[in-house]
Amino acid sequence: MSGRKQFDVSAALDQAMRVFWQRGYADASLDALGAATGLGRGSLYGAFGNKDALFGQCLDRYASIYGAQYEQALAAHPGDPVRAVEAFFDVILGRIADPSVPVGCLIAQSAAQSLTLKEESGVHVRGLLDTQRQRVRAALADSSAAPRTLDELATFVIAVNQSLAVLSRAGTSDAELRSVTRLACTTVADTLARVASENVAQA
Fold this sequence. Notes:
The protein is mainly alpha-helical. The protein has helices spanning 9-23, 30-37, 41-48, 51-75, 81-97, 106-112, 119-140, 147-169, 174-202.
């Protein structure tokens, strides 16, 4: 049929996402993107726009895949914010250990290269990080802690998440990464327990 694309757009987007994930934005050349997707520059531009437009679509693709998993994990333990955070980290560690995908995290990789990104892409990455934080913050909402404390804990959890991605790219073992998440969950639990105890004492 005239004008019909002769390739699977979703598959090509997934392959491009892997290139950005593995190499980072700056080193994801059009040649590398073309080799991974099997598309020439003209077809890449025709299907996805320029490199920045393709990068934005890859960020959204990544966020849709893993964001759904994060939401499911965080929502699976209503009334138990510590268990919700543990489940969140379990998803992250599972992604890191998955040999079928690049090491680390596309969002963390992109955040680390923010200075190489155009303003629109930088805003996009920061928005995705904030979405992660909002998910965790919502899972903590059942706690009796003050909003400021919960905001700080949500930011802490996301900071640990990003650190896991960086450590994994540096070759840190699964056992070491799990020790990091255990300490993070202990910090969350101890903070919430301390606040609950203070609230009882003040009642």
